[in-house]
TrEMBL record:
<keyword id="KW-0812">Transmembrane</keyword>
<feature type="transmembrane region" description="Helical">
    <location>
        <begin position="162"/>
        <end position="181"/>
    </location>
</feature>
<feature type="transmembrane region" description="Helical">
    <location>
        <begin position="126"/>
        <end position="150"/>
    </location>
</feature>
<feature type="transmembrane region" description="Helical">
    <location>
        <begin position="202"/>
        <end position="225"/>
    </location>
</feature>
<keyword id="KW-0813">Transport</keyword>
<dbReference type="InterPro" id="IPR035906">
    <property type="entry name" value="MetI-like_sf"/>
</dbReference>
<comment type="similarity">
    <text>Belongs to the binding-protein-dependent transport system permease family.</text>
</comment>
<keyword id="KW-0472">Membrane</keyword>
<dbReference type="Pfam" id="PF00528">
    <property type="entry name" value="BPD_transp_1"/>
</dbReference>
<feature type="transmembrane region" description="Helical">
    <location>
        <begin position="27"/>
        <end position="49"/>
    </location>
</feature>
<keyword id="KW-1003">Cell membrane</keyword>
<protein>
    <recommendedName>
        <fullName>ABC transmembrane type-1 domain-containing protein</fullName>
    </recommendedName>
</protein>
<feature type="transmembrane region" description="Helical">
    <location>
        <begin position="261"/>
        <end position="282"/>
    </location>
</feature>
<feature type="transmembrane region" description="Helical">
    <location>
        <begin position="95"/>
        <end position="114"/>
    </location>
</feature>
<dbReference type="GO" id="GO:0055085">
    <property type="term" value="P:transmembrane transport"/>
</dbReference>
<dbReference type="GO" id="GO:0005886">
    <property type="term" value="C:plasma membrane"/>
</dbReference>
<dbReference type="InterPro" id="IPR000515">
    <property type="entry name" value="MetI-like"/>
</dbReference>
Length: 296
C-alpha cells in the first residue's frame, strides 16, 4: 500500500516575517554577550599571556597581548618554587586544606540542615535566626578572638585552625540545604520510619541522595573559597613548607629587590587550572543548587 503524500503546510506570511525580525535581535544579543564575556575575561587572558613574557617587559610593552619574545622559562622557574620549597609542595598543601575543609563543611552543614528542616526542638526559630545572623557578621570581627583561642590550643603553624572550624557547618550551605530538604515530601520520611529506619538512617538513605545538587553546589563553593583564601593562612602559618598556593604566590613579590613577575604569573595560571576545570565539569550543579528546584 503506497503512502499517501500529505500536503506540506506553509507557515503564514506573518509568522515568516516574525521569524525574520527575531533573527537580527538574536545576532545582536550574541554579539553583545560575547563582547561582554571578552571584556570580563580580559584580566585572565592578560595574565596567561604575561606568563610567557619576560618580567622586565610585562609592564613596559603597553600591555600588548603578543609576547615578544615568547618564553617558557617562567613556568620552569616558577615550578622550581621559592623559599626552598618546590611549587608542588604548595599545591599539595592547598589540596589537603581544600579537600578536608570541603568534606567537613558539606557533611556537617547537611546534618545541621536536616535538624532544622525535619526535627522539632525548643527554640528552633531562635537558633535558626542566630545561624543566619552569622552570615552578616564580618570575618574581621572574629579574627582576633579566634587567633587567641587557637594560640591557647597550640594549633598555630598547622592546618587545624583552617580546617577544624569547617566541621561545625557553614551558614550559607546550611540555608541552601534547608531549602532543598523542605521541598522533599515528609511522606518519604514516614515511609522510611515504617520500614524501621531511625533518624540517621532516614537522613543517610533518603534525604542525602535527594539533596545531591545542593551538596555538589556547596562543595564547589567551598572549593573556590578555600583555594583562593589568603587571610587565614597568612595568620596561622609561618613555615614555608605549610604554605598553600595563595600564600606562596606572594613570595614571588620582593619589596627589597626585583620581583619575579613572570614566574608569579606563570604559577598563577597554573593555580587557576583546577578552578577552571571544576567550574566546567560541575557548572550544571551550580545552577541546580542555586535555583533550589528540589524534586521535579
Amino acid at each position: 500500500m503506497e503512502p499517501v503524500n500529505q500536503p506540506v503546510r506553509e507557515a503564514p506570511v506573518f509568522e515568516r516575517k516574525k521569524a525574520g525580525r527575531v533573527r537580527p535581535k538574536r545576532i545582536l544579543f550574541h554579539v553583545f554577550t560575547a563582547s561582554l564575556a571578552v571584556l570580563l575575561l580580559y584580566p585572565v587572558i592578560w595574565l596567561f599571556v604575561s606568563s610567557f613574557k619576560e618580567s622586565s617587559s610585562i609592564f613596559t610593552t603597553s600591555h600588548s597581548l603578543i609576547p615578544d619574545p615568547f618564553i617558557l622559562s617562567n613556568y620552569a622557574e616558577g615550578w622550581k618554587g621559592i623559599a626552598g620549597q618546590p611549587f608542588l609542595t604548595f599545591i599539595k598543601n592547598s589540596a589537603i586544606i581544600v579537600g578536608v575543609s570541603t568534606i567537613g563543611a558539606v557533611l556537617s552543614s547537611a546534618v545541621i540542615a536536616y535538624g532544622f528542616a525535619r526535627i522539632p526542638f525548643k527554640g528552633k526559630k531562635f537558633w535558626f535566626a542566630c545561624m543566619m545572623g552569622t552570615l552578616m557578621l564580618p570575618h574581621e570581627v572574629l579574627m582576633i578572638p579566634q587567633y587567641i583561642l587557637f594560640a591557647k590550643l597550640d594549633w598555630l603553624n598547622s592546618f587545624k585552625p583552617i580546617v577544624v572550624p569547617q566541621f561545625f557547618g557553614h551558614a550559607f550551605f546550611i540555608f541552601l540545604m534547608i531549602q532543598f530538604i523542605r521541598t522533599i515530601p515528609e511522606e518519604l520520611d514516614e515511609a522510611a520510619r515504617i520500614d524501621g529506619c531511625g533518624r540517621f538512617a532516614c537522613f543517610w538513605r533518603i534525604i542525602l541522595p535527594l539533596i545531591a545538587p545542593a551538596l555538589a553546589t556547596s562543595a564547589i563553593f567551598s572549593f573556590y573559597w578555600k583555594w583562593e583564601e589568603l587571610i587565614q593562612p597568612l595568620l596561622y602559618l609561618n613555615k614555608p613548607e605549610l604554605y598553600p598556593v595563595s600564600l606562596a604566590l606572594k613570595l614571588f613579590l620582593d619589596t627589597e629587590s626585583a620581583s619575579n613577575w613572570g614566574a608569579m604569573f606563570a604559577m598563577s595560571a597554573v593555580s587557576l587550572l583546577p578552578v577552571i576545570l571544576v567550574f566546567f565539569l560541575f557548572q550544571k550543579y551550580i545552577v541546580q543548587g542555586i535555583s533550589t528546584t528540589g524534586l521535579k
